[in-house]
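Troubleshooting log. The previous run stalled partway through. Resubmitting the same two chains, unchanged.
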Amino acid sequence: MNLQDHISAAIDRAIDEVNAQLPAASRLTKTPDTVLFGREEGLDSLSLVNLIVALEKHVEGGCGRSVSLSSPEVMLAADSPFTTVRSLREYLATVLKED
Amino acid sequence: MKVLSGLLVSNFNTGNLARYLENDEESPKIECTSAPFGQVMATLLAPADNAKPDFAIVWTSPEHVSAEYGRCLDGRQYNADALRNEVDQFSAAITQFAGRASVVFVATLSPITDAVTSSLAGMRVGGASRLLAEMNLRLADNLRECRNVYLLDSARWTEKSGDRPRDPKLWYLAKVPFANDVFLAAVRDIKGCLRGITGSARKLVILDLDDTLWGGLVGDVGWEKLRLGGHDPAGEAFVDFQRSLKALSRRGVILAVVSKNEEHIALEAIDRHPEMVLRRSDLAGWRINRVDKARNIVELVHQLNLGLDSVVFIDDSPVERARVRETLPEVLVPEWPADSMLYPRALADLRCFEWPAVTAEDAARTEMYNSERTRAELLERVGSVDEWLKSLQLRVDVEEVGGANFERVVQLLNKTNQMNLATRRLTDKEFRAWLAGEGRRSWCFRVTDRLGDSGITGLLSLERQHDAAVIRDFVLSCRVMGRKVEETMLHVAVDYAQSAGLREVRAEYIPTPRNQPCLEFLERAGFPGRDGEQTFVWYTNQQCPLPEAISCTTERWRATV
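Second attempt completed without errors. Output:
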C-alpha cells in the first residue's frame, strides 16, 4: 500500500467508527465530496472530535507516524481540512509528506 | 417494539455512551437524555417530576464522589472517616433517586484520568487502589437493599479496551474520559441487563455435539477417542466450555442438544466418557438424528413450551449456523470461533443470559424439565389427560404474594410470555407499590406432583372495582401449562370474588405476539359472559369448580377467611 492508500483506509475506518454512533439517516458516506464539518451540514462538534481521535489512531496504525489533527490551528482554520473527505485526504497527504 | 427511555447521570460527557446506546442494533431500542454533566448530586437529589425514565445510569468518577479520594491521589493526607461519609452520602442520594426511575444502574467507581499511582503501595492501607476497592464495596453494601438499583462492574468495560481504557485526547477535547471501546462494552452489558430485567433474556441453549461439546466425530472414532479433557489443550478447552454451560444451567438457563448423529452412540458418549461435565441429567431434551436441525429445534422448543426467541443455537459448523439463522431468524445463532480454545470466551461474550437474581426455581430448572419428560412419557402410557393428572397426584399450594416468594413472583411476572393475560412488566418496587393500593390482592401458586416440585409457577392479581374483581395478572409458567393449574387459578379468582360478595370477575385479554395460549384458555374455560371481544366475565352466581384432579391445601385466598 502506498501513502495515499493508507490515508484513504485510515479515513474510511475513522468514518466507520463515527457512523457507529449515528442514526442511519445521518451516517457519512465515504465519497470525496462528503461534507464532514460545515455550517449547514456534516458532523456536530462531538462527532468531529471522535473522527479526529479515531483518525489520528488509524493514521499512526497504518502509516506508523503520529499526526496531530486536534490543535486549534488545524480545527479552526478558515480552510479547514475537515470540510470534506477530499480536503482531509489532501491535508493528510501534505502533512505526512512534509514529515 | 417498545423504545426504552434512559437518563444518563455523570460528571463527564456521556454523549458517546448515549449515541452508542441509541444506535446499537440489538434490542431493546433506547432513547437517551443526558443530565447536565458535573451535576450528579444535584440531579440525584432533585425533586421528583413526572418524567420517569425506564432506566438511569449513574456513572461518575471517584474524585467526584469523594474529595478525600482526590486528596489521596494528590499524595496528600486524607481522612478515612470523611471518605466513608462521602460514599454514604452518594449512596443515600442514589437511594433517593431510585424512586424516580424504574431501574437504576450504577457503574462502580473507576479512575477517569491517568493519575500517577504506585503499584507497590496501591493495595496497602492508604493506597489509592485499595481505597477505590473499599469505596466500591461500601457502595455495594449501602445499595444492596435497594431492589431496583444494580451496581455494574465497570472494570468489565475498561478491560475490553486493553491497556488504554482512558483516552486523554477525548478527555481534553470533549470531556469524554474513556476510549470508545469502553462505551461499546458498557452498552453491550447494559443492554444485556435490560433484556434480563424486562424478561427477554435467552433461556435455552441448544448445542451441537461433535466439535462443539467435544472434539472429533463420535460416530467415527467412538467415545473413547474423543478430544475431551486429558493432557490436550483443545480437550481442556472443551471441558472448560462444558463447565461454563453447567454454570449457566445452575442459574436457570436450560441446555439441550440437537445433533446429526446416531442417538445411542451419542448418548453413550454423554453417559460414559469420564471427562464429560454435562451428563444426560443436565439436558432438558435432545434431538439426535439425521433430520434437518432447524426442524429439530422447532420440535424441541415446542416440547419445552418455550418460544424460538428464547433460544441460542451453538454449532461449530458454519453451514448449520447459516441454515438455522436463515430458517429461524428469532433464534440467536452467534458466530462461533473455529478454534475450540476460544469457545469459553465466546460463550462469556454472548451477554444474553443476564439474570437479576437466581431463585430456587432457576437452580432446579433442568431437573424440572427432566421430570416433565417423565410426565410426558406417562401421558403417552396412560391415555386421557384427567387420568394422567390423577396419576400425577397434582397439588397446588396457594400463597399470598409477599415475603420469601416475592422475588420469584416478580421474576415470573417479567419472564412469562405465553400464559399471560396482560403482560405487565413491573420491577419489584413497582409491583410492591401496586400491591399497596386499596382493594388489591395477589396470590402465587406452587405446583407439586409425585415426580417433583415445579416451584412457584403461577400468579394471580386481582383489583376490586365497584362490584367486580378485575384480574390484573393471570400468569402461568409454560412448564405447568395444560395441567389444570390455569383452571385452578380461575377457581381461586371466582371463589375469592364470591367470598367477598362481588358480582363478577373480569379478565381483559391484552394481546401480544406471544400470549395467544392465554386467549385460547380463556375461550375454552367456560366464561359465561363477554364484554366486547377481549374482556371475559364470570358471574359469581355461577360456580367455577376446582378441577377434580387437583388438590388444594387451603382456602386462604377467601375474603372471609
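Takeaways: Chain A touches chain B at residues 17, 20-23, 45-46, 49-50, 52-54, 56, 70 (CB under 8 Å). The mean pLDDT of chain A is 89.
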